[in-house]
Structures are given as C-alpha cells and as structure tokens.
Design goal:
Length: about 140
Amino acid sequence: MHDDIIHTLTDWIETNLDKTLSIDEVAAKSGYSKWHLQRMFRTVTKQTLGGYIRERRLTLAAEALSQTQRPVFDIAMQYGYDSQQTFSRVFRRQFSQTPTAYRHTMRRQSLTRQVNYSFDCSDFASSAYSKVQLDSNSPACN
C-alpha cells in the first residue's frame, strides 16, 4: 500500500521538478502529515524526500549541462536554485566536480565515443582499395 502511494507521489514530483517544491507542499498533495510522509518515503525508497527531490533535480541539470549549450546560470534557475553559486556547491557535492568541469568531461567523452573507430586492415587486402599503400607505421595497421 505504501509503495503505491509513494510511487504515485514520485510520479507527481517528477512532473513538478521545475517548480519550487517544499516538503509542506508535497505533504499537502499526499494528504499525509509531513512527519508521516517522510517516514513512509524513507521506508519505501531508503532515502529522504528532500534528498530524492535534490538528487532528481541535479540529475536533470547534469543532463542539461551535457546535452545543451545553455549557461550554467539558466540551468541552475530552471531547477530551483537561488544562485549559480548554490547550484555549483550542491552539484560539486553530488558529482565531485563543478558544473562547468562536468560539462567539459561529458563533451570529451561524447567526442571520444564518436571518433572511436577501428580499422581491420584485412578488409583492405581484398578490396578495391588494395592498391593503396598504407604506411607500415600507420596506427590503423599496427
């Protein structure tokens, strides 16, 4: 029973992460007292309600950082932080790096995945390209 209540509540939280969510507001939505709701939430999810909301917002912010060019300030405001400094502090605590460093790391990883290709030189031996001489020092055939 509690699982269903918490599942329904987390669905509602997910659709409202871009709004200011206080524990009072979430408790009012659930129909339970703050104390009882937090106790139920922790029993079912093994984390606090506030921690869950913060973690989800940071995860969405991290996705926005890696997938868009939007300024860090705009992303911080979208996910309910009062300032870029507060966002950066909380983000660093969660991801062990600043939002800007995270963005650069994720872009480098993305580029590495896109450029990561390999050659099988045996494919060239029997193809129309067999007349092309590859330098024996070429990384493609070493």
